[in-house]
Amino acid sequence: MRWSGQELTTEQAGALPGLARLNNLVRSVRTPEFDGITFHEVLAKSALNRVPGQSAMPFGWTINPYRGCSHACTYCFARPTHNYLDLDAGKDFDNEIIVKVNVAEVLSKELAKPTWGKHPVALGTNTDPYQRAEGRYRLMPGIIAALSDSGTPFSILTKGTLLRRDLDLLHEASQQVPVDLAMSIAIYDDALQQAVEPGTPSTKARLATVSAIRDKGMDCSVFLMPILPFLTDTKAHLDEAMRQAKAAGATGVLYSALYLKPGVKEWYFQWLEQDHPELMPQYRELYKRGTYAPKEYRQWLAERIQPLIRAHGLQRRREDPATGGILSKALTAPSNPNSPPPSLIAAELPPEFSPTLF
Fold first, then answer.
1. Is residue 122 a contact partner of residue 325, using CB atoms and an 8 Å limit?
2. Of 63, 158, 178, 346, which is most buried, counting CB atoms within 10 Å of its CB?
3. Given strand 38-42, what is the order of strands in its sheet?
4. CB-based contacts of 22: which residues, under 8 Å, 6+ apart?
5. What is the CA radius of gyration of the chain?
6. Cα(191)–Cα(149) distance, rounded to whole angstroms?
7. pTM of this prediction?
8. Helical packing angle, 103-111 and 140-149, nearest 10°
């Protein structure tokens, strides 16, 4: 699981103060295979995170095997979560990755408690569980096994094509519990995608992963989010996005406009200033009130995209109001008293829920 001969001690110049104070830090590791990235291995005290819910959903549950993400998406809403360790929401989020090396073991113990209610659990609604480091740490197979063996439904939202490694495990798990899978594929212009999401697999590779999931007989939705104002909100781009998602076999789509919370806004605007300075006046005007694109813009976007969803025969998937991931099949079963009313179901996530990945 871990690398040998690459350990950094907390006394070294490269050790960061916030991490050095952690009493569960095992070691910090660098390797030429991941140039510029440091992995901080920690022993997790808990694996399940309870998320306060909204409306009919009192709460949701998530698992985050990693903190920080080498996908380096400029718009990632989870960036400010690094601040609690005195790490910044910019380059540190991309290059200082926290790895919960014992997360599967801790999860198994939590799921075995008599008080566990087998609530649906979401992965990928904060940082991506299938980012590149997962190829070495292999945390997800143990997590999948723990969830399915305990009878716990789960969902995965990812940009990582590494999910294909675990397709047999996921298919086996889907025979025991409801499993919902989704790929986040927001940008269908190769140059723009690599500029905004420099550490991610290509759009083509992610679409191929959708097809591989479908070939296993499992459903797979596409998260078309965030839609970037003045960059990916043209009718031509959205129509091509729907066409490619449908051709790959996607069974549904969710979308939302770009969401820029403090700490993320500054980082995204820095990228925009470098790559598209001509758009800065429009963005400053659009986001002058804060985090969300104005209601008028979101209404305009809905009027543009919803006819395209219908035209391409794509299903409008449901979001979980608590976690922002896909609403679990376990919560949509007719016999389930916790199923949300139809008023909660929409193709666009409300602005409070903007699960990017990534």
1. yes
2. 63
3. 7-8, 25-30, 38-42, 96-100, 66-67
4. 40, 42, 85
5. 20
6. 42
7. 0.88
8. 10
